[in-house]
Amino acid sequence: MGRPLKIAKAQAVLTITNTATVGSVVTVSGGNLVTAPTVGIMSGMSFICAGSISGLVANTVYYVDTILTNTTFSVSTTQLSVQPRVMATLANSSGGTVKASFAVVDAYFNNPVGGAGFPATNANTYGVVGGNTAIVGKQVLANIAIGYTGTGNVFASTGSNVVVGLGTDFANLATGTKLYAQTGGNVQVAQLLGTATATKGNLTVAVANTSTTGNIIATTGNAQTLTVNTPVTFTADLGNLVTGTTYFVKAIANAAAFTVSATPGGAEVDLSTATGTPDAVQNRVVLGAVSANNATGTYGYGDPFTQALPEAGYIVRQKGKTKYLVTGTVSGLTGACYTANVANTALTPNTMSIIATNAAPGTQYVSSVNDYNSEVFPATVAPGSLSIGTLYTIYQSGTTNWVACGAASNITGITFTATATGSGTGLAVLNTVNPDIIGTFNTAYVANAANGQPNPIVTINGV
Question: pTM here?
Answer without folding.
Answer: 0.77
